[in-house]
Write a structure and sequence with these properties.
Elements: H1 7-13, E1 38-41, E2 50-51, E3 59-60, H2 67-84, H3 87-102, E4 117-118, H4 130-134, H5 140-152, E5 157-160, H6 168-186, E6 191-196, H7 199-210, E7 215-221, H8 230-235, H9 243-253, H10 258-269, H11 272-300, H12 305-310, H13 313-324, H14 332-357, E8 361-368, H15 389-392, E9 397-398, E10 423-424, E11 434-438, H16 450-460, E12 476-479, E13 485-487
Parallel strand pairs: 1-5, 1-6, 6-7, 7-8, 8-11, 11-12
Antiparallel strand pairs: 2-3, 2-4, 9-10, 12-13
Helix pairs in contact: 2-3, 3-11, 6-7, 7-14, 9-11, 13-14
């Protein structure tokens, strides 16, 4: 809780793409018959940001804190705040700790990196990077790359790695260049593309700028193609801690040891997490929120263009006023970009439907029934530990986490209503092409798991599959915790 105004705010905004690794088979897969080059746009790689990327002097941008010392320093700052009622000093001391860890992530007021920071990029097929291919692991995006390299050959696989902080329209240009390279390399006019997590908003930006003529099939996997709620809430100052969900998030997401989990369970039963939430919501947040936003959030995250691209259109004007009010002349570039993203997002659904009507094959898959970081007003919604499910699923109507939709709720079409009464996909952008997976972690692409098998089926199907195509993969699926799937009953 002690990081609620800084580190947890940051954590809520910086949803790192992490999924459980699980292996299912050891035998090599046969080469797939696939005429299209494959392009993967990864999710946000928080740890992949480097100083002097690609050089022998490269090092991660985010520092490695001394956890015990950090907790001690934050606890001391909190004690001083409670004892002296000097909340600004408390906030400044906590923000100093945070800045030591991630200060080099900062951008200029024009949305450009302040330091020599970035990521290693791969502007050609993975056949040109054999050393990287040899190091591919089994988890998340790497597991997906590993599988597609095995199935298609490294010369058919292209990988977009990126600095997630900067303007999505810059990424759109670079994605276009990668797609054009893939087309030229293989003498084709289309590619298949999959995008994970933050890659969703980058893909929408690409489609908005360049259209869909070069794409055959697109898979949106746990993606931000419909934005997020967390950015709009935080940029409007809508901060709130949910104690019971904070406990669940830590247990679900943080990978704590069995002994730590045992003590946390006792603490939760004793009401500690509810007490922490009460202290945060009634004391800490009202006392220091404005100071934290003024002293840190504006120049650290308000200058990151991608944050504004992810914000819901209805939240954007209020957020611009809250973050930049009275200082607009100092942030004109970022404000201008934010308004352009609003135009894009207002057109997004109609644009995608029209592209599908004209031949673009679109598939959406995401999970639900897991908590998100519960430190913002919408933090009690269904999620996958990182993003909100209703938006990942393209505008699904959903119950709050661990609840069901009301007994008198009537879906527009019962075919798209989940058996557990938690998800109505009849309101989604693409109900016939959207799969909802219960209790599956964020970006479920790990190597040789059943989740990955489903995604490969989606990629390789001769015609674009629907939720009615394969009885093995109906619209609503559930996991046993090991990325194995079964129909939801």
């Amino acid at each position: 809780m002690k990081r609620i105004i800084s580190i947890l705010l940051v954590a809520a905004l910086l949803f790192a793409s992490v999924a459980l690794c699980a292996s299912a088979k050891d035998e090599p897969a046969a080469k797939a018959e696939n005429p299209y080059p494959f392009v993967l746009i990864r999710g946000m790689d928080f740890g992949g940001l480097q100083i002097a990327p690609g050089t022998e002097n490269a090092e991660t941008v985010v520092g490695s804190p001394d956890v015990k010392r950090t907790i001690k320093n934050v606890a001391e700052a909190l004690f001083k705040g409670l004892l002296r009622r000097d909340w600004d000093t408390f906030a400044d001391e906590v923000l100093e700790i945070v800045d030591d860890i991630m200060g080099k992530m900062a951008l200029t007021r024009e949305g450009e990196p302040q330091y020599d920071t970035g990521v290693v990029q791969y502007p050609q097929s993975l056949a040109h990077y054999p050393e990287y291919v040899e190091t591919l692991g089994n988890g998340v995006e790497e597991g997906f790359l590993k599988r597609t390299v095995e199935d298609y050959g490294a010369d058919m696989v292209y990988y977009y790695n990126y600095d997630w902080r900067i303007d999505p329209y810059i990424h759109a240009e670079r994605i276009n260049a990668l797609i054009e390279t893939a087309k030229k390399d293989h003498g084709v006019d289309k590619v298949n593309l999959a995008c994970c997590s933050m890659g969703g908003i980058l893909t929408v930006s690409y489609l908005y700028k360049y259209g869909a003529a070069s794409l055959h099939r697109v898979l949106f996997i746990s993606s931000t193609f419909c934005g997020t709620y967390v950015t709009g809430d935080l940029l409007n100052g809508r901060v709130k801690v949910y104690g019971d969900l904070l406990y669940e998030f830590i247990i679900t997401r943080m990978g704590v040891s069995k002994s730590t989990a045992f003590f946390l369970k006792i603490a939760n039963r004793l009401g500690l997490f509810k007490a922490v939430a009460k202290l945060a919501n009634n004391v800490l947040i009202p006392k220091i929120k404005d100071h934290v936003f003024d002293a840190y959030m504006r120049d650290m995250f308000g200058t990151m263009p991608v944050v504004w691209a992810l914000t819901q259109p209805e939240d954007l004007d209020g957020a611009l006023e809250y973050i930049f009010g009275g200082k607009e002349d100092q942030y004109q570039t970022v404000i201008g970009l934010a308004k352009e993203y609003k135009k894009m997002n207002l057109q997004r659904d109609d644009m995608l439907r029209e592209m599908q009507k004209n031949g673009l094959e679109i598939i959406v898959a995401a999970s639900y029934e897991l908590p998100v970081v519960p430190v913002y007003e919408s933090g009690n919604v269904q999620g996958d530990t990182v993003l909100e499910s209703s938006l990942m699923l393209g505008g699904a109507t959903m119950s709050l986490l661990h609840e069901t939709l009301p007994d008198d709720y009537t879906p527009l079409d019962k075919r798209y209503f989940s058996p557990d009464r938690e998800v109505d996909l009849s309101t989604a952008v693409f109900p016939d092409y959207t799969w909802a997976l219960k209790s599956v972690p964020h970006v479920f692409t790990s190597y040789k798991t059943e989740c990955q098998e489903m995604l490969m089926w989606m990629l390789n199907a001769e015609t674009c599959p629907t939720v009615f195509t394969n009885a093995q993969y109906p619209q609503f699926l559930q996991s046993n915790g090991a990325l194995e799937l079964s129909p939801l009953e």
